[in-house]
Structures are given as structure tokens and as C-alpha cells.
Amino acid sequence: RTLVLAQNVNINGSTQHEDKQPSVDFAHPLVVGNVGTSLPSAIMVDEQDLRDLLKFRHYIGIHWYDLGVELKLNLADLNNIEQKYGDKDRCCRAMFELWISKTPAKFQTWNCLITALEEIELINAAEKVSEFVISKYHSAP
Predict the structure, then answer these.
(1) Who has the most CB within 10 Å: 34, 58, 89, 100?
(2) Which of 56, 29, 28, 23 is nearest to 42 (CA)?
(3) Higher-confidence position of 38 and 68
């Protein structure tokens, strides 16, 4: 299965790349990942989404560190989290907090999270996050 994501396309066919969150546009698909649903590509994840992120920590479990690496977080920061908390749930929360606070906006999207989950082969988690994002942001026509 393939994850189809939307992107904004100019009249001349070039893609818009913005650091800020564009409006949701499902009209122009962009194929990314392997999950198999339709999502807007640039929905930002921010502090208000932390509670939503934490719903998926049991799918991530002991793989929180690998996910942090895939999300391009600093290894020293991840090691500090591991030493400070030890418990996988608390480590996962701290990793998500770090991602939200230190990642550039263009890499702090639900799409980036889903792709990272797929890269570390947490396909079930990627599917659950994808389903959540669709239910939260995609209104029926």
C-alpha cells in the first residue's frame, strides 16, 4: 500500500515549499511512504498535539530511541533522556517533547512522523497515526 499525501502546486506545476503550515489541500497527491491513505503533507505537530502523540507511545515502546534517531534528533539529547528517565513511556514523551521543541518547522509534521515510523518498520504505529490524522484533519466532502 502507498501513502498518498497532498502538496500545494503552482499553476506552472512547481511545488511550494514553505516553513509555515499551508492550508490543507487534498487535490494534488504526492506519493510517500507505504501506509495507504490520503493525508495533507504539511500539517504541523506542535505543543498542543503532545497529548495526541502520547496516544501512540504503546505502539512505539522500546523503539522510542530509534524513532528519535530517525527524526534526526541529537544523539546526546536522546542519551540524556534515556539516562534521566529510563522508563520507555517517559522516554517516549521526552523524545516527542524534544522533537516538538527543537525540530525545524518543515520537519515537524505528521507526515515526517509517519515516514520515520515506517523507516524503523513500525508499520502498525504508522497506520494508527495516519488513521488518527485523517480523522482529525480530513472532513468528509
Answers:
(1) 100
(2) 23
(3) 68
